[in-house]
TrEMBL record, chains A, B, C:
This is Aromatic-ring-hydroxylating dioxygenase subunit beta. It comes from the Bacteria. Keywords: Dioxygenase, Oxidoreductase. It comes from Polaromonas aquatica. Pfam families: Ring_hydroxyl_B. Belongs to the bacterial ring-hydroxylating dioxygenase beta subunit family. GO terms for molecular function: dioxygenase activity. Gene3D superfamilies: 3.10.450.50. InterPro entries: NTF2-like_dom_sf, Rng_hydr_dOase-bsu.
Length: 157, 157, 157
């Protein structure tokens, strides 16, 4: 695959990932990950100190599916709309089928009857596995800039 | 045209569309549409229920030109600057010269002497006609996340 | 170089530029410029009237390096995180090794213990020199929408 085709494929992957969350198709979200994977949302202050605590953490696609069940059936939260803006998607390195990639992300949240506010902004540091033909995240680390999030983080980033 | 060239052309089209609004060249804005077209800005709550009411609606380039005349000559509003951030431009399907496309959009508005605030964020669901050589929107549906907009929507999205 | 390769190269350049600021690698920031260069951040109201006053101005890479020293050693400011979202990167014209380019930019700033807010949004009007193999800004004009910035502008845009 040429650099250009790979670049287009990875950008498309990030775009469809954002759509799965913003369109409310949260059931499709775990399918963007490999079976064994690392998913983590952590504040920059912890990331910079190599600490690992953050508001979301999972080590398998099964755990991500649990999260989806929680969102759809267990968690109590007010209805909200989410829009992701993603920029700066970049392929940092390629080793066979494994890519290191990164991006910049802003997530806007709107509660029913409410105005739109910034939920989080930050950078993502990701690994993508091209092994089975379609890209999948084997790792996705979302590093957000604030120490506290304004309100609960219901949906993934 | 290869996928890559088409992708570049469509991204370039979305970029120049945003520039026409953010540069204040609002006269050029209707030229991004075909003669017969559908332009609609609607809240997500209505879009999800297949209701059609929203703050802007037009069915022809002529109606868009009317809007431009209103902006330049009739409407009374305080001066403001607009910046569009667009991401996630994606070609969903291609049928001959007709493309279904979509994007994520954040519009920032700044009143004179004021600070910058988010006017709207959301997704656009569009149809683009390549028939006359340059892309034109035959349909542009802007679905924004909030039920209410903070302040009047003077400029198009 | 084909249009596609050039487009990819320029997008990559804008992305790495944003990373150098958001990753805190501010020492690397001047290396994105040619030795003789023009760097300017100005409010839209001045830009539109062809006035030149704004919160940052430099005419050489040396002056940018001075800014870095100020940020790292002299200026007193509270710690903050920065995220840049960049969209609409477009090559406006090509003349030999010199490109005119532009982009849309939103900068989010987060103070320690604080929430994320918009620091500035606007457009950049740039010149890029490809003469020595890697792109460098020979000119970067950041035109922001507000007349006042909320808080000090410590880091470059």
């Amino acid at each position: 695959m040429t650099d250009l085709n790979l670049h287009l494929k990875i950008n498309d992957f990030y775009t469809r990932y954002a759509e799965s969350i913003c369109d409310g198709d949260i059931e499709t979200w775990p399918e963007f990950f490999t079976e064994k994977c690392l998913y983590r949302i952590i504040p920059k202050t912890n990331y910079d100190r190599k600490l690992r605590i953050g508001p979301m953490f999972a080590e398998s696609k099964g755990a991500l599916k649990d999260r989806v069940v929680a969102i759809k059936e267990t968690l109590v939260y007010s209805a909200r709309s989410i829009t992701h803006l993603v920029s700066g998607v970049r392929i940092v390195s390629v080793q066979g089928d494994l890519l290191k990639t990164r991006s910049m992300l802003a997530i806007y949240q709107t509660l029913v009857d409410g105005t739109t506010h910034i939920q989080l902004v930050g950078r993502t540091f990701d690994s993508i596995d091209l092994g089975d033909g379609t890209p999948k995240f084997s790792e996705r680390i979302v590093v957000f800039d604030s120490e506290l999030l304004a309100g609960a983080l219901v949906f993934p980033a």
